[in-house]
Amino acid sequence: MEKIIVIGNGMVGYKFCEKLRAKADKNKFEITVFGEEPHPAYDRVHLSEYFTNPSVENLEMAPRSWYEENDIELISGEMINQIDRVNKTVTSHKGTTLSYDKLILATGSSAFVPPINGVEKEGVFVYRTIEDLDAIIDYSKKTKKAAVLGGGLLGLEAAKAMIDLKQETHVIEFAPRLMPRQLDEAGSNALITKMEDLGLTIHLNKNTKNISGEEKMTGMEFQDDSELDVEMLVISAGIKPRDELATACGLAVGPRGGIVVNDLLQTDDTNIFAIGECALHKNMIYGLVAPGYEMADVVVNQLIGDNDKAFESYDMSTKLKLIGVDVASFGNAICENEAHKPIVFEDKHAGIYKRINISEDGQRLLGGILVGEAEAYNMLLQVTLNGMALPPQPEDLILGSRGGEEAKMELPDTAQICSCENVTKGDISQAIIDNEYEDLADVKACTKAGTGCGACNPIVKDIFNDQWAKMGKTVKNVICEHFDYTRQELLDIIKIKKIQDYNQLLDEYGKGDGCETCRPAVASILASTWNEMILEKGKDAIQDTNDKYLANIQKGGSYSVVPRIPGGEITPDKLIVIGEVAKKYDLYTKITGGQRIDLFGAQVHQLPDIWEELINAGFESGHAYGKSLRTVKSCVGSTWCRYGLHDSVSFAIEVEERYRGLRSPHKLKSAVSGCRRECAEAQSKDFGIIATEEGWNLYVCGNGGSNPQHALLLAGDIDSETCLKYIDRFLMFYIRTAEPLNRTSTWLNKLEGGIDYLKEVIVEDSLGIGEELEREMDFMINTYKCEWKEVVNNPELRKRFTHFVNTSIPDPTMKFEEMRGQKKPVEWGA
Amino acid sequence: MTDTVLEYKSVKPEEVKEWYKAAEVDAFPENAGAAIEYKGLQIAVYNFTRRSEWFASQNLCPHKKQMILSRGMLGTEGEEPKVACPFHKKTFSLQSGKNLNGDECDLATYPVKIEDGYVYVGFSH
């Protein structure tokens, strides 16, 4: 067996082990990995997530058990400090000596700390390891104002982390722009505007000369004699290759650091390889993970005797979301030394900047920059990397099409789609042809495309759909492996065949035993068709977790309870009852974003008792747990407001009570504003109503959630009756035709003909189904019952609300602690 | 009362030393799970009526370490019966306990038998 020793258990060291085990017989190589940190390899690219969720496990590339299962000896917390190239051994600081046949140096890099006077002071940190982060988190508890030195990729990530730690944050950059290697001045300006909106202060052209303070730092002084008072400093000014081991054993290193390697990644000792950020290839240190993975691949291929592939220079294109802002830079982004014709699109109002660099002959794309909107990144990168011919109007590539077909370009099979795992378009197409994969997840599992950083996922999906289309098949949005039907088809079957039971539907129209995808989808269809109590007749087994307990499951396994407060209007007496219930059951209370009061921390056995008390005081379920109508928010309206045109509160209450409990493909939110000042934010809702001089304007398909989208006007200046009629039709049409878990905004985006078609169907009744839809809605309104009340009054259902079935004790592991005078669940795993 | 993941070790049918009489069959909802307490352990017992099969696993979600798997939804992937964790919809094989989403962290599983209208769960210690 050949003995392989890997020094360094970072992302690249780990990937090397994974690739070697995947490609070669286990008995061929004995693998030992040394890592000087105490943890197994973790995902350094997503290090800043540690600030919002300080769990090492979340970041782990693989747990310790993975190494055991793969017969890899992982020695962590131990540092190799000597390589004996003559005897081919390595020795650790603890005195462990092991011999090797092949040695892999994956020692990575450390943070580069510029030689500034005072960097040794307390309060100065680097941003590199989990230990660094723990120290930063700890120190930030005593500080309010922090600076980050470095306005590059990692520096801005660090700045995001400092905002998460509630620091007033300053970014100090030596260059005249942010991300100086990736962006030009205009791109940097667009990014700065976005960053400043988020509360960061950016200082450019700043050369730090001194860090002031006695033992602790108190501020920074710059060459231009300006000063900045900050209590802590995080340095993220670049990386320094860890080449000290290589230097000590006489391997060649570059003048500015880095272990010199050839195209096969061999050092000048052919038994020793260097990969990742410690390696200097053609005078280049790669500070990204994807080239490191590629290097690991090249070395693995040589070890298994398939050594025709050499490491070529690597494209440094990158796309990321910095503090929620899309930033991408690809190919020759700035084109400082290359003749080119740039095409630039800039929208200062929206903070969007796009630039593409066209070769002088107008034939090829050299590179470009996208700030604020980077959807086109994958396609543009492919066009650049593959030297594809440009369309006659290359500006379409960043402007989108203006009329006519969208500029869509056919990628060659050799186009590399997933750079983390080195998967080409051809690999993906072939996997689909060979295996007839019908599921995108299978394609990803087979090719590994999209399993690294995930940036290529949208393009993988496009290739998947195109390939299916080429094979003459359409990709049908079947619900899951158990039903060969779409949601719309299942709804028709249920309605026409009058099916009221999930198992019957599965027996007659499906196969297998169902799953967590089709069960709740069918539960929703049954509820929006028959409106029966959702927990009776065995239907509790098909409800999603929140519906099953008519409450929202929260951290720790406790539940939260939200009574309906229509339109947000509530009497003092009812407010007192909520307070009393919360006090009696020791619940945390919070006003929600939808003008309701959420009561958290209820244990499962307490739910029926809590509901009973709320029901007795005149409350009913607010359906906060359901894919159903949640709230209808209102502003003050004409009753009190000096601007109010109509009584928005009364109308909001009427609307909320009309549609309460209505089950739909996704949750529904609404709002009514009493004038066009729009204090209820009706245009960010699934349906929103705004008062006009003449009546109401009805807006539909807005979304204030994860993908904000403004609602569009469906009908203007209509009276209350017409408004309700249109909403009846609109909601029922959505319930009938949307796919599971599609919000109204997504549904509209996929609806052929868009809002114009929707207007035809709803307002002009072009399909002649208006009355039918209204009748269906009438049935839903007339059969409404409060679900909480049904459970409270039904001893059989009530019995289900226990933690154990063999003892009446509650979950003994549930733990709470105090925060701001109320309780909260302890952190995951604490 | 313990909640550490280390306390939960799969028991194979041939290793059973004690059949614990958990509760009457009727106490377990159909096509769903319910939790039982046994010597400080929390075990989720699944009455997969549709398949006429019973399964048991640790109640502890190995991902976020919360006692909630008994409230998960049952289903199948191909021929394999599975449970979806109510927190983040990770799915686990009810037969082997394996995490079917490819990540690590599997469930410990336990044998179940039904006798005279009672549900028994097998333990090895």
In terms of topology, how is this protein built?
The complex is a heterodimer of chains A (830) and B (125).
Chain A: E1 2-7, H1 11-23, E2 29-35, H2 49-52, H3 56-59, H4 64-69, E3 72-76, E4 80-84, E5 89-92, E6 97-99, E7 102-105, E8 109-111, E9 124-126, H5 130-140, E10 145-149, H6 153-164, E11 168-172, H7 185-197, E12 201-203, E13 208-212, E14 219-222, E15 227-229, E16 232-235, E17 239-241, H8 244-248, E18 259-261, E19 272-274, E20 279-281, H9 289-303, E21 318-322, E22 325-331, E23 340-347, E24 352-359, E25 365-371, H10 377-385, H11 396-399, E26 416-418, E27 423-424, H12 425-435, H13 440-447, H14 457-470, H15 487-496, H16 502-509, H17 518-530, H18 545-549, E28 552-553, E29 559-561, H19 572-584, E30 588-591, E31 597-602, H20 607-616, E32 629-634, H21 648-659, E33 668-673, E34 687-691, E35 696-700, E36 712-718, H22 720-737, H23 744-750, H24 754-762, H25 770-782, H26 787-792, H27 795-799, E37 816-819, E38 822-825
Parallel strand pairs in A: 1-2, 1-7, 2-3, 7-19, 9-16, 10-11, 10-16, 11-12, 18-20, 32-33, 33-34
Antiparallel strand pairs in A: 4-5, 5-6, 8-17, 13-14, 14-15, 21-22, 22-25, 23-24, 24-25, 26-27, 28-29, 29-31, 30-31, 34-35, 35-36, 37-38
Chain B: E1 18-24, E2 32-38, E3 41-48, E4 53-58, E5 73-77, E6 80-84, E7 91-93, E8 109-110, E9 112-115, E10 118-123
In terms of quaternary structure, what is this? heterodimer
Largest interface: A-B, 40 and 42 residues
Named at the architecture level, the CATH assignment of the largest domain in chain A is 2-Layer Sandwich
The largest pleated sheet of chain B is described as: 4 strands, antiparallel
What fold name goes in the CATH topology slot of chain B?
Rieske Iron-sulfur Protein
Q: Biggest sheet of chain A: strands side by side, in what order?
A: 3-2-1-7-19
| Strand-residue proportion of chain A | 15-25%
| Radius of gyration of CA atoms of chain B, rounded to a whole number | 13 Å
Strand order of the biggest β-sheet of chain B: 2-3-4-8
Taken as a percent bin, the fraction of beta residues of chain B is 35-45%
End-to-end distance of chain B: 17 Å
Protein name (chain B): Nitrite reductase small subunit NirD
Domain Rieske (chain B): 19-121
Organism (chain B): Reichenbachiella ulvae
InterPro entries (chain B): NasD-like (IPR052034), Rieske-like_NirD (IPR012748), Rieske_2Fe-2S (IPR017941), Rieske_2Fe-2S_sf (IPR036922)
